[in-house]
Amino acid sequence: MGRASSHRICGLRTSMAALALILAAPGAALAADMPDFLRGSYSPSYGRWDGFYAGGHFGGSAMSNNFGEATRDELAFILRNTTLEDQFSPSNWTVLGSSSTNSLHYGGFFGYNWQWDQLVLGVDVGYTHMSSMANSANETIARTVTTTDHIQHNVTITAQSSIKLIDYAAVRGRAAYAFGQFLPYATLGFAVGRFNYSNTVALSDAQTDVTTPPGTFLGTFVDSASDARDNTFQMGFVGGLGMDMQLMPNLFLRAEWELVDFWKVGGILTTVNSGRVGVGARF
Predict the structure, then answer these.
(1) Counting beta carbons within 10 angstroms of the beta carbon of residue 3, is it exposed (0 to 12), middle (13 to 18) or buried (19 or more)?
(2) Quick one: which of 56, 148, 226, 244 could link to 200 by a disulfide (CB 3.0–4.6 Å)?
(3) Closest of 281, 258, 260, 280 to residue 270, by C-alpha
(4) Does 40 have pLDDT greater than 50?
(5) Is-cis flag, bond preceding 35, omega within 30?
(6) Of the candidates 174, 226, 147, which has an alpha carbon nearest to the alpha carbon of residue 50?
(7) Which residues share a beta bridge with 65?
(8) CA distance linking residue 93 with residue 113, whole number of Å
(9) How many angstroms separate the CA atoms of 40 and 25, rounded?
(10) Are the beta carbons of 154 and 219 closer than 8 angstroms?
(11) What is the pTM of this model?
């Protein structure tokens, strides 16, 4: 083979190598831009949420109160050992109804998360202070009944009740599922609330002997009773739904709805619905 042929072969090889490099460069860049699963590998698409965290929140709450049994004990005490109570139980009559109110609130929270892949379980402790959460009811009812001793009773009951929720603390278990920068979760636990309440009831019983028409008026029995306490504590159940969103690896925003159903306080049933937003940090 001549020297000219050798030069032509070397030049051809050099040109082919250069062309291969030019063609390979865009392919490598394209491969680098492919999603992990197209390149044959996969990395987790969710954040880390394990460890301790703490933060603050604020929002609004709506409180619903059922006052139907608020003055039952006081009325039963007034009518103790009477034929009227034995036969007609005025203490069980529903005098007061239900009422609702609302308030702003603020507070804080802290907790700990355990994470297994996308499953996150945790314990959360929160405190909520109400700006002004007070509710009340007052009503009067009148009934006429005749007992077996032939006494007609014209009964009038006037009742007043009020309640104020000062604050509450909640201990909740959390179950969550992480995806991307989001952590939706559900909570379930118990709460302890601090209340002020006051109940007052007045009874008027105009009695008439109906054995001989038109009846003999016997007089009017009048009495009243009350019960009031400040800073009394009561437990309740709590549940809710929420979403945490990572802003940075150790900083997150929180949006949450929470329902607290308290046991009776002074005979008053209390339910609190709260919506809030907050910010927290992981440690």
Answers:
(1) exposed
(2) 226
(3) 260
(4) no
(5) no
(6) 174
(7) 99, 270
(8) 49
(9) 20
(10) no
(11) 0.80
